[in-house]
Amino acid sequence: MDDVRTPLTLAAMRVFEHAFARSVAGLVADDVALSSVTDVWTVFDRIERLASGAKTLLAERVDIAGDWKRAGARSAAEHLAKLGGTSTAGARRTVETSKQVARLPGIADAMRSGELSHAQVEAIVPAVAADESAECRLLKVAATTNITELREECLRTRAAADPDRDATHRRIRAARSARTYVDAEGAWNLHARGTVEQGAAFEAAFEPIIDGLYAKARAEGRREPRETYAFDALMSLAEREPDEPRRRANARFLALVRVDAESLARGEVEGDEVCEIAGLGPIPVSVARELLGDAILKVVITKGVDVINVTHFGRSATAAQRIALLWTKPKCANFACSSRFVQLDHREPWAKTRHTKLGELDPLCPHCHKLKTNQGWSLVGGAGRRAFVGPHDPRHPRNKPPPA
């Protein structure tokens, strides 16, 4: 049977709005059975995705209609922001996304079917607009991983399709900014934007301070979220005297430039080659060349020193092993987790093997590491990023029969 779409009319939408409003008006959270509350939440999430997708698809049409001019707004984005109770910047992104989706039928269909959240749409559309051949791949990524992973893959796609990375880099640097504002609750906020290598330089100075505050709190018996120590570290930087010497960055926090040797020699990236600061994002080859002599950064060049077969008899990984792991596995090995603050975990206890080999180490964030150590969770068999399961999951290594 052919897929026949029902034309959307204002009258039909009013009827649906009224029926849906009556359902929500009767919602009392405590009346929803615990056995079905997650499924009910999922239904509302799908409705939200459908509504968000429809609003995005219609945004360009609202711009063309010109009602915003008659309302005295400066732009369609300003008008939509007032109607929707959102920021003008967010509405402007929606209008721009709507214009790009108009020539991306595959993405538009995914939005109509409720497959994509608003955040996923905002990540995918600019990337597919830059490289339409990436549409199927990015939709698959969106369906199988979290928003952080998707944004990173979209960023790589846009960078690979950029005909002039140097010009883009100069534009970002020229538009660098930092602003502060007070939110609706009365809390002070800071938002900064700049190039990737500037972010790497900041984090190289920032992370050791966070670590120091964390260690001090642990020694005093205090337990607070890492984000709390990060804010305290930021204030520490602000309160430092101008002539106070900077703390030397610990090697653990050195950023790595991942760059293929051919790209470095040629001066630009081609095909599947990479040039990026690990964990932050792509940079032009020209910037990588400038950073080669910088004391803050170490450079790992593809086809460099092979540390795969190195066996170290100490408990901790060597510097070379840590660099290799930061390059190849910069995130928690749990596929559902995107944390970059990781600890190296031996698959088999060091007390049993008495050695440290690269192929036997997995990076785990503190939360996942604690689950493994205290509650018996484990990564499923294999290598790289993969599922992280509880002790009763049939995929848990303990629950699988030994090979014949």
Overall description:
A hairpin with a 3-residue loop joins strand 4 (275-277) and strand 5 (281-282). Among the domains are: 40-163, no CATH class; 192-251, no CATH class; 327-399, no CATH class. The strands form 5 sheets. The chain has a 4-stranded mixed sheet with strand order 5-4-3-6, sandwiched between helices. The chain has 17 helices and 12 strands. With 404 residues, it is an alpha+beta fold. Helix 5 (88-101) crosses helix 7 (118-130) and helix 11 (196-219) crosses helix 12 (226-239). 21% of the residues are buried. The protein has helices at 10-25, 37-65, 67-70, 76-84, 88-101, 105-112, 118-130, 135-144, 147-161, 165-174, 196-219, 226-239, 261-266, 285-291, 319-328, 350-353, 366-375, and strands at residues 177-182, 188-193, 255-259, 275-277, 281-282, 297-301, 311-312, 343-346, 356-357, 361-364, 378-379, 388-389.
Write a concise keyword list for the protein shown above.
alpha+beta, 404 residues, two-stranded antiparallel ribbon
